[in-house]
Amino acid sequence: MTRRLTPTRTTLRLTPLRSTLVTLSAALLLAACGKAQTPADAPPGAGAPPEVGVYTVQPQSVPISSELSGRTVANVIAEIRPQIGGIVHKRLFREGSEVKAGELLYQIDPAVYQANYESARAGLAKADANLLTLRPKAERYQALLSAKAVSQQGFDDVNAALKQAEADLAASKAAVEVARINLAYTRVVSPISGRIGKSAVTQGALVTANQPTALATVQQLDPINVDVTQSSTEMMQMKRALEAGSLKSAGADQARVKLVLEDGTAYPLEGRMAFSEATVDAGTGTVTLRAVFPNPKRDLLPGMYVRAVVEQGVKEQAIVVPQQGVAHDPRGNAVGMVVNGEGKVEARVLKTERAIGNKWLVSEGLAAGDKLIVEGLQRARPGSPVTAIAAGSPGAAAQADKTPAAKP
To answer: How many other C-beta atoms are found inside a 10 Å radius of the C-beta of residue 292?
Structure first.
């Protein structure tokens, strides 16, 4: 006989102590939830618009300059070459030193040229003595011819001899001058003042007149030239801006130029623009400009790479804004966030012409009085309300410190 098992219901019975603990836990849980949702305990300013630092646009006069690359060039260069041949007897300078104009650099053996000079002087004395005898003779023949005491042929012979003697005297004087010049050329002197480089010859070397290799080179380094290049397109744009009046000339004097050295340091002395080349390089489409800089300490040496900052004019009522307030969209357009009159963020497409230091020169998209957001851009969303405060103020700095860093 089979027994049927009937399921039974088990009833959970709580003791008085356990029931009390459950009730107390539920009450604490409800109290904690109520406290978290209390508005008075919420973070301060949770319902207020976020603060952003703004830069108020103010038009101002801005000097417009161009940074052009170039190289330094000696102001004057003189290649020392002999004008006569001979053996170098002495070298009378120290390589790399400063020399003065007219200072003796090389002495070529003068013995042969001294002898030629003395010979020419002797020939001059002979021609002069010959003339001394022929001139009185010609005068006497002139008187005798008037008295019919000599023939016309005799007088003509004496007169011709006199003129030949005068020509010989002139030739002798020229020969003396040539010999004197050649003798002087044995002293090779510096034609300019400047710094002399290394010598290509030593004592005892044979040199020839007008040889292709220079004995040495003297360069004048104070002042020194800086040759830079500028594109013809940029030059034409600058010219049109000046003609239209949107850009005013920096002054009637020659444009001032500042120099940035190869290591990024600024050259302490200011230069001036000397001239602009009259032709455009067909290969590069650039024009060469030359600036002149004082160089008393010889800090600038020929061949150095430099960047010249040329002041080309002044733009009146220009709008310049900090670069941190301008971003670029995927299309490459410059975009700035502005707080409009309703206190909301508005995105503006800007047209930037050039960078001036750490700012952008803006020609379109901003007007006087606009408030460009430069701090707290991560909290600015187009159309959202914000509280605008002056950039750099303690409130803006404190708000920036509270803002979490953007994740990469």
So the answer is: 17
pTM of this prediction exceeds 0.85: no
* Residue 282 amino acid letter: A
State whether the Cα torsion 386-392-394-399 is positive or negative. Answer: positive
* Fold topology of 110-185: Helix Hairpins (1.10.287)
Give the pLDDT score at 248: 57
Q: Do domains 64-75+221-315 and 110-185 have the same CATH topology?
A: no
| Residue 406 token pair | 């953007």
* Omega of the bond leading into 404 within 30 degrees of 0 (cis): no
Tell me the CA distances in angstroms from 71 to 230, 253, 320, one per residue in order. 13, 24, 31
CB 267 within 8 A of CB 293: yes
SS3 sequence, 222-235? Answer: EEEEEEEEEEHHHH
**CATH superfamily, region 64-75+221-315:** Efflux pump adaptor protein, beta barrel domain (2.40.30.170)
| Fold type of domain 51-60+317-402 | 2.40.420
Q: How many CB atoms sit inside 10 A of residue 31's CB?
A: 10
Q: Do the Cβ atoms of 213 and 79 come closer than 8 Å? A: no
For 74, left (φ over 0), alpha (ψ -120 to 50), or beta? Answer: beta
Coil, strand, or helix at residue 403? coil
Q: What is the pLDDT of residue 47?
A: 62
Q: Give the CA dihedral 81, 83, 85, 86, nearest 10 degrees.
A: -70
At residue 402 the predicted structure's pLDDT band, cuts being 50, 70 and 90, is low
Sign of the C-alpha dihedral computed for residues 153, 126, 177 and 214 taken in this order: positive
Domain ranges of the chain: 51-60+317-402, 64-75+221-315, 82-108+187-213, 110-185
Instruction: Domain 82-108+187-213: give its CATH architecture.
Output: Beta Barrel (2.40)
DSSP string of 18-59, one letter each residue: HHHHHHHHHHHHHHHHHHHT-GGGSPTTTTSPPEEEEEE---
End-to-end Cα separation, the chain, in angstroms: 79
Query: What pLDDT, in 10s, does the model give residues 60-114?
Result: 888 777 788 999 999 999 999 999 999 999 999 999 999 999 999 999 999 999 9
Query: What does the block give as tokens for 220?
Result: 């004048």
Q: What is the mean pLDDT of the chain?
A: 81
